[in-house]
Amino acid sequence: MTALKELEGLNYVPERQVQIRNEMPAPTTDLEQAKRDLDETGLAIMRGLFTPEEVQQLREAALEQAELEREQGVALFARPELGHHPTKGMIYTHVGSRIGRPLKDPTYQVVRFLVNKGREFIDLAKKPEFLALAYHAIGEEYHLSNATALVIRKGAPAQVLHRDQAVLSFETPRPSMLNLMMALGPYRADQGATLFVPGTHHGPAPRYAMGADGLVEVVEDVKAYPAEMEAGDVVFFESRVWHGQGPSVSDEMRVSISFIYNAHWWKPHENYPASIPNELYEQLDDEERALLGFKVFQHGTGTMMPRDPQDKRRNIGTAELPFIPELRRGNGKSAVPLDGEVEEW
Ligand SMILES: O=C(O)CCC(=O)C(=O)O
């Protein structure tokens, strides 16, 4: 008899038996090798995916956006010497994080929602090798969770080692997300190259304690290795492997783009169905909308309803819903049947 979980459509993915390696993988141009590295070490570095011109164009676009966000007082940045904001929370775990205009170059700046900030970033998120490794790691349907540019400058402290799926309080047999970091210039240890503890993707999660300086630190005494890369290299890492941004002591900026893809049932970091401008929505094809989380795969997770009778945003992969407001006799509001027609059965 066929086991229920093996029936078509139930997303049964057999677990892979892998030999865990506690060493950094070498950069590779071979996608199959990258898949093996990801399985065995929790990360993989790919080389040769981009021309120098492509890297330069992405770098210029990311840096121009970052500069204008600073100029226009809407930058998400950190300057550790500022300490905690008197009233507001931190951006991620970065001490001295602020939203506004930095009065001097911040040690950390993140440009979020890149998909709203240039067609080239959406095209980049569709790179076949990125999608192949996302599917390989996650093992089922997924969509984009996060698209950011990062600029790290001298004085940036090391980020606390963490797992990207740290919100889960239990171990998972597969990762819920695949993260990648593309180097848009040199990506050396002295510039804060991402640090990894290879082989930690098969658990347990790091434990944390408050250090003498009042900052959170990892209890385990582990060796973390920098993923040093050339411009255009990409490090892919699954959401269970321990990692964190390294400290920068260099006058040369570290510039990178990060994408996270997550399993279709995971709450994404960036809620694109709620956040992308109408103008962009209308330019996207169905494949792109699916990548941004508009597709409903199974069990109705992520179902949308029109926000007003004119709303054009729709799910893909499930029945379209009509606009239905609060209906009370005499409140003057009405529902709008689909296509203006009521089906009677
Ligand atoms: O910037 C990096 O090197 C790593 C970033 C990261 O892991 C994070 O922000 O969670």
From TrEMBL:
InterPro entries: Phytyl_CoA_dOase-like. The keyword Isomerase does not apply. One of its GO terms (molecular function) is iron ion binding. The keyword Transmembrane does not apply. Keywords: Iron, Metal-binding. Gene3D superfamilies: q2cbj1_9rhob like domain (2.60.120.620). This is Phytanoyl-CoA dioxygenase. It comes from Novosphingobium lindaniclasticum LE124.
